[in-house]
Amino acid sequence: GGFSSLCWLLGHGAGTVTEVTAAESGTYGSTDLKNAVESLSSVAVEAGNWRDPAFLAGRQYDVVVADYLLGAVEMHWPHGADGMFDRLLSATKPGGYLLIAGLEPYELILDRNDAKERLVLDIESIGESAAYVAGESTYREIPREWVQRQVQRFSGEYEVVAARDFAMKLTARSLKSQTSYAKDVGKKIQDEQLRNAFLDRIAALEREVDKTWGRVETVGQNYGIIIKK
Asked: In angstroms, rounded to a whole number, what is the distance separating the alpha carbons of residues 19 and 167?
């Protein structure tokens, strides 16, 4: 979780909230989250990795919100998306709801023949490639169809009660956050010549964003799924 999901939950009148994060520091770090809610007795912040069977073992909630969580699983639990999904389902009380928000993988819906869509694909690809060459784990978005297949594995126990797609709006700033990530992992590439080649390509993509990207462009697709137990 992070500040945005926490604020969303508090804004919808949740009685108590348990915010879960895998990191102690950084954008989604537990330290900053705990400082932000220290005066709220109704909010608890838990830091840990769902791949650990002991983490929040046996805990169940009326509503579980996975706010773009599945796309980040690969960073903390390589090849663990199905295990993560099982943990989310088991954390949902009988009669409760699991809410999934996700990003449809770009490569499934974007067209390289379109200049703007190709730029988005190139930025994502350079970040992923740099991470792999540097020996780092990276993000891996999960398609809506995959989520629905997982629910079907538990036929009779869980049911998709609502699902919807949402157009995604991308700003130059959001694209620059992706190139910033690419630069961060690119700097960790040990081979100097290869590292410089990656950084040069990332710089060229940033110049292309500055030159061609409008204030807000509608590119890509988000989805929301509500699952009842």
From this structure: 27
H helix and E strand count, the chain? 9, 6
How many Å apart are CA 186 and CA 195, to the nearest integer? 6
Amino acid, res. 170: L
61-67 β-sheet, strand order: 61-67, 92-103, 216-228, 159-171
φ, ψ for residue 127, nearest 5 deg: -65, -45
Helix, strand, coil distribution of the chain in percent, nearest 5: 45, 25, 30
Rounded to whole angstroms, the Cα distance separating 146 from 167 reads: 19
Burial of 193 (0-12, 13-18, 19+ CB in 10 A): exposed
| pLDDT tens string 30-64 | 566 666 666 677 788 888 889 999 999 999 999 99
Query: Strands, DSSP E only, in the chain?
Result: 17-21, 43-47, 61-67, 92-103, 159-171, 216-228
